[in-house]
Amino acid sequence: MTSDRHDPEGAIAAAAAVCSNWGRWGEDDVLGTLNFLDEGKRREGAALVRRGASFSLSQRFDMNGPQKGWRRRTNPVHTMLDTGADAALGNQGFPHGLGGADDVITMPLQCSTQWDGLGHIFDHGRAWNGRPAEKVVTSDGDLVTGIEHMAPHVAGRGVLLDVGRVVGEDGELPDGFAITEEHLTATAAAHGVSVGRGDIVLVRTGQLARVRRRGSSHAGGGGGGWGEYAGGPAPGLSFTTAGWLHGTEIAAIATDTWGFEVRPNEFEHAFQPLHQVVIPHIGLLIGEMWDLDALAGDCAADGVYEFWLTAAPLPITGAVGSPVNPIAVK
Question: Which fold has domain 8-73+108-329?
Answer without folding.
Answer: Glucose Oxidase; domain 1 (3.50.30)
